[in-house]
Amino acid sequence: MNKERKAERKLFGTDGIRGTANSFPMTVDVALRLGQAAGLYFRRGAHRHSVVLGKDTRLSGYMIESALVSGFLSAGMDVILVGPLPTPAIAMLTRSLRADLGVMISASHNPFGDNGIKLFGPDGFKLSDEVEAEIEGLMDQDLTAQMAPPEEVGRASRLNDAAGRYIEAAKASFPKGSRLEGLRIVLDCANGAAYRVAPTALWELGAEVIKIGCEPNGVNINAKCGSTCPEPLREAVIAHKAHLGIALDGDADRVIIVDEKGQIVDGDQILGLITLFLQKSDRLGSSDAVATIMSNLGLEKKLAEHGVTLHRTAVGDRYVVEKMREHGFKLGGEQSGHMILSDFATTGDGLIAALQVLAVLVEEGRPASEILRVFEPYPQLLRNVRYQGGDPLQTEILAEARRAAEARLGTQGRLVLRKSGTEPLIRVMAEAEDPALVEEIVSSICDAVKKAVAV
């Protein structure tokens, strides 16, 4: 292998490889070559190498799984199959089993027709951009001569207690001695990867669990359920007079909460709640937390009142994790519901985050609606402008409009301009205390983007 070869990422995006199942790049051929290339890249030393391979509940998961298994086996790696489990479970098991690589087949919150492949290193963390680029470089080569000889071809086996291992790890994040007795919880698993493990963990901790979105059939994952569609959860919480509602997404690495009144609580409020809870119990470590550029300014100011500095990164939980690892921070998250607690997980974990919210609920003994409104959000507006070709962000037209907008906002607001990672869109977001000003700023920037595109 020539690991010094530099390659540009074409397949990998902000969260692995993703696309429509059975269409490029989510094809059997790509999955097979990825298995071979990643297997070769992580085949180091004389020990017997292994990869943990999990998936969510999409129908196409069987197809992608089989292709990956063939690729890894041909590269001389043993494959440990764990079936449908949350993404954070794969990260946890990779470290726990001392595997060389972890792989999750999932398109997260996307519709069932999409699928994706996420890779984790032996430390349980997502791979860096540089490592993904090197793996892509290997995929472009003829790897035939580097495949394992017949006597070194890998073996595939199934880990029967994988779900139980993850359940116990998740429960261990809940404060020792605390229980959920007396709490009625509605849990929406998006017909996805957590449909068995999440209800079991909550029930074993003592809760009365009302399940929705826990009957996957291969094509109903994220379909009018889960964290991206919390309306069914809201209705169920009110109908059952529940104390709390929890919505996970298809691979359970993000969470959205609904309080007893049916009010939706996003990731910013959850991050604020957990941060202040950990600080109060002297478990935050350094007085810092991490969020992305999209998190509300109200969160930043609220944490600052308590002496907590909020560091911001690019959008994507992997970038949040990178910042946390760089500085040794214990907590980070995204507005979308990704929550990373480094004491318990190496990636976003919706179930563990929900358990921390429940821990606050138990300790405080007050209704969820009283504890989950941590700060008053600044008015925030996001609009998208489509473009074809070029880079509107590099034009003088947009640069001038941006300077004027930032001058108007001053220190009392924020403007964020960025390209979408999945579509040819410029995302324009502004926030400030004055909603009229926010509307004016976003409209003026969108107009500038359109002019820049037209030039």
Give a structural overview:
Helices cover 36% and strands 20% of the residues. It contains 14 helices and 18 strands. The protein has a six-stranded mixed β-sheet, sandwiched between helices. A five-stranded mixed β-sheet has the order 8-7-9-10-11, sandwiched between helices. A three-stranded antiparallel β-sheet has the order 16-18-17, covered by helices on one side. It is globular, with a radius of gyration of 22 Å.
Give a summary of the structure in a few sentences.
The protein has helices spanning 28-41, 61-74, 87-96, 129-139, 162-171, 197-204, 231-239, 267-280, 297-305, 317-327, 350-364, 368-371, 396-409, 435-454; strands at 17-20, 50-55, 78-84, 101-105, 114-120, 156-158, 184-188, 208-212, 244-248, 255-259, 264-265, 288-292, 309-313, 331-333, 339-341, 380-386, 413-419, 425-432. With 455 residues, the chain is of the alpha/beta class.
